[in-house]
Design a protein that fits this description.
alpha/beta, Rossmann fold, 5-stranded parallel sheet, 6 helices, 5 strands, 19% strand, globular
Length: 165
């Protein structure tokens, strides 16, 4: 079984993330969405909420693609998480050239830690390249409309969190 790990904070999951998940799902038999527990980032949504959003959005994708898609929280090294879930592939989404420099460094470090795990980059669809969770949260905080960047369920969760529902 070909298993891949797509890691991130997913705070919240956006249409850009969903695009990468959809395209990665057709390449593997099992896709693990690694939900990073990154206390330094101070997420808007707690771990359970982010996992629930991912599970809600990915249930449809799993049915469409026939690929098992699961959310898996992790707080250890990415390479250790990949080993833990049996992933031989790490999927990373790229939006712009600026993402590539950071990702290039990460690949080098991960290959030094375990050269048997490959990293695969998927370019975000053009219509999703500007989407970043950080910007979505900022737009929502300032009363902007984020419905073009997230699903209706995630939009509702954002509005509730910000007391705008």
């Amino acid at each position: 079984m070909r298993t891949a790990l797509y890691p991130g904070t997913f705070d919240p999951i956006t249409l850009g993330h969903i695009d990468i998940i959809r395209r990665a799902a057709v390449l593997v038999d099992r896709l693990v969405i690694g939900v990073a527990i990154n206390r330094d980032k101070g997420p808007m949504f707690d771990l359970e909420e982010r996992v629930a959003m991912i599970e809600g959005e990915c249930a449809k994708l799993s049915a469409e693609t026939g690929t098992e898609i699961i959310a898996h929280p992790f707080e250890n090294l990415l390479i250790d998480c990949a080993k833990e879930v049996g992933a031989r592939i790490i999927v990373r989404g790229l939006r712009a050239v600026t993402d590539f420099e950071y990702e290039y460094q990460m690949v080098g470090m991960n290959r030094a830690l375990d050269s048997s795990i490959e990293t695969v980059f998927l370019m975000a669809d053009l219509k999703h390249q500007a989407i970043a969770s950080k910007l979505v949260k900022e737009i929502a905080r300032l009363d902007g409309d984020v419905s073009q960047f997230v699903t209706p369920a995630v939009n509702d969760a954002l509005m509730q969190r910000l007391g705008k529902a």
